[in-house]
Amino acid sequence: MSEISPLVRLVDDDDAFRESQKLFLSMCGYEVKDWADPVRFLEEDDPRVPGCLVLDIRMPEMTGLELQRALYVRGNKLPIIFLTGHGDIETAVYTMKYGAVDFFEKRGDPLKLRDSVSKACERSRQYWRQKKEEEKFEETFNSLTNREKDVIVLAAKGASNREIADQLGIGQETVKMHCSNAYGKLGGGEISVRSLSMASESARRRF
Questions:
Q1: Separation between Cα atoms, residue 147 and residue 179, nearest integer Å
Q2: Exposed end of the chain (fewer CB within 10 Å): N or C?
Q3: What mean pLDDT comes out for the span 136-162?
Q4: How far is 71 from 69, CA to CA, in rounded Å?
Q5: CA–CA separation, 82 and 127 (whole Å)
Q6: 3-state SS of the chain?
Q7: Apex CA 203: angle with CA 201 and CA 207, to 5°?
Q8: Residue 152: its pLDDT value, please?
Q9: Is the four-CA dihedral 70, 75, 121, 103 of positive or negative sign?
Q10: Which positions ≥6 away from 83 have C-beta within 8 Å?
């Protein structure tokens, strides 16, 4: 299944500036969608689409800082780039505290914005790749039998077959069988190293 193309979101109540940035980023090869109203952005944007948000600070209905905070509270991982005509060091530090990846003045070098958007979109793609891998693993892990889970969780903690057998009250050959079955379902080979690491995380939730 192919990846979804990243989307650059622009939120700025300055229509002329927003249109100019939309044109610039579109010419750089990005799919761009824009909003003048941050509230409508919250209502309409699909956070599952990778990309980034280019955001103004001073807007009448909701400020850029308030929008950033709302996204933070919702657990939205969309990288945010602030592009504003009303910036200062204190504001820049605040935005970074809540996850902004960059902070530029509107009259700054547009190529710096282009480069920042590129990095932010790649960061977003990596986040969604990892999230899909983790969700796929979780689904597979949950398909294991209870005994296979018990065995693979202990193996992830570094226990030997003998130690697992003693702890679970089963034979070592049975441990090997369950471990082999679990390895196969989780991917085997090199994938199993990552899978076992995730199994350790699952173990903390199970015990």
A1: 9
A2: N
A3: 85
A4: 5
A5: 20
A6: CCCCCCEEEEECCCHHHHHHHHHHHHHCCCEEEEECCHHHHHHHCCCCCCEEEEECCCCCCCCHHHHHHHHHHHCCCCCEEEEECCCCHHHHHHHHHCCEEEEEECCCCHHHHHHHHHHHHHHHHHHHHHHHHHHHHHHHHHHCCHHHHHHHHHHHCCCCHHHHHHHHCCCHHHHHHHHHHHHHHHCCCCHHHHHHHHHHHHHHHHC
A7: 135
A8: 84
A9: positive
A10: 12, 21, 54, 55, 56, 104, 105, 106, 113
Cα–Cα distances in angstroms (integers) from residue 147 to residues 103, 176, 177, in the given order: 51, 12, 11
Asked whether the beta carbons of 90 and 118 are under 8 A apart, the reply is no
Contacts by residues 96-105 (CB-CB < 8 Å, ≥ 24 positions apart): 98/68, 98/69, 98/72, 99/68, 99/72, 100/68, 101/52
Give the model's pLDDT for residue 87.
66
Average pLDDT, integer, range 116-138 = 89
Instruction: Give the pLDDT score at 197.
Output: 61
Q: Which two tokens stand for residue 5?
A: 């193309």
Q: At 81, list the tokens.
A: 């780039």
